[in-house]
Amino acid sequence: MSVPPSKHLVKRSIDNPAHPKVHQWLQKHFLFIYSFSSFQDDNWGETTTAVTGTSELSISQEEVVGLGKGIQDRTQGFRRYLPLAVGSCVGLLVLATPLVFLLLPAVMWPDRLQVCGAACEGLFLSISFKLLILLVAVWALFLRPSRACLPRVCVYRAFLITLTLLLTMSYWLFYGVRILDAQDDDYHGIVQFAVSLVDSQLFVHYLAVVLLELRQLQPCYSVCVIRSTDGETRHYNIGQLSIQRAALSILEYYYRDFPLHNPALLSASKHRAAKHLAGLKVYNVDVGSSANYLTASRAMVTAAGKRKDSAHNELYYEEADYERRVRKRRARLVVAVEEAFTHVRRMKKEDERATPSDIMDVREAALAIFPSMARALQKYLRTTRRQHCHSMESIQKHLAFCLVNNMSPKAFLEAYLVPGPTLQYGPERWMADQWTLVSEASVTSGIKEGTEFLLKCLDFSLAITIKGIPYIRLTEEYIDPKSHKFLLLLQSETSV
């Protein structure tokens, strides 16, 4: 067992390397050893001596990041299912309370209860159907799976849950004081009390439908969404929503309407800009005198200016060449796909006359004709810089889908010739868990005229601007139907 050295021995070992045992002990345990006498000094931060090293129990930075990511994933899972758990508990409390109101008197003082007549039994039927309707309504509105994890709690949902709990607790207090303590024998009145609770809960659910669903249906604002990298812009109309709910709706529109963000298309413009800026840099290290230096500098600046004036010509010819190469690759791809589909149709006609054992499966047919178009498709995707958006497995699966449903070659090519929305591609392209809402105002506050906020992702961001829909005033202009009538007069005399 190793014994730590005293403070004097440690200080001497630090100042004088004549104690090899102490140094071995320090290298073995790798502790921070501070000079005890330095704490007596006012400038202890400057005179402190420390010996550092790598501990046997140390972890790497990647492990620390992985640990934080695991904790974050568990927290996100907890936050995702927390509203569903709270809604389930409140729903069970709401549905169980009326039944408990009816069962407690029959269990605690059954001998003192009055006989339940026909009217009382009719109330049993009423409360049964009302509870069934309330159960379906609560399931449809509150027990739906959550679409997103918002940064803050929804104000209206918190208000409705609080109102429901207050209502239930109020009925419980009244029931405990006036019925349980007094052991009321009027069972008909107890049943009416339970029916009134169910009616109140139905009205609260109606209020929830108005606040959570109906209030946001009428469009009140126009939203402008701009993607920061390529300037792709869309406009949408939304209703009365909070900032975080508006951000959620905009992201749903984004995945549906915006084309997939492709950073490879932006690298070409960045390369061209860097090349142009590199052409403007002037270096002159061989000139001796100042006069010669100024003359050479003017010549270089003039050459750089001419290069700058010709930059638009370079851009024009570069874009023209790119469009020419894209049209060429596209024509080759269209011809290759049409020939492959023609071959499939010919094989299908031959399979009609073949035996069932020789008929080829659709998956096998897709694998058989894919090599004939793979090279042309790969070159086209590389030219358009979209090769990372489509894997070989997804292309073969799409080809098999088109063959099963007897689609045309144009229908197969549409997914590759035209960039589709983000949801058309795999989940690895969605980046659904990388969005950050940036807003000066509170995210739980409602949107209004001039509200601006930002949705940041890994490679780009969405800038959102809110504008109110103007108040439209229509006037009516009446047109008399008789004003469209005219009279045709014919002369009585005709020429012979």
Automatic annotation (TrEMBL):
Coiled coil: none annotated. Pfam families: Strabismus. InterPro entries: VANGL. The chain crosses the membrane at residues 81-103, 123-142, 154-175, 187-212. GO terms for cellular component: plasma membrane. It is found in: Cell membrane. It is a multi-pass membrane protein. Keywords: Cell membrane, Membrane, Transmembrane, Transmembrane helix. The keyword Transmembrane helix applies. Belongs to the Vang family. This is Vang-like protein. It comes from Amphilophus citrinellus.
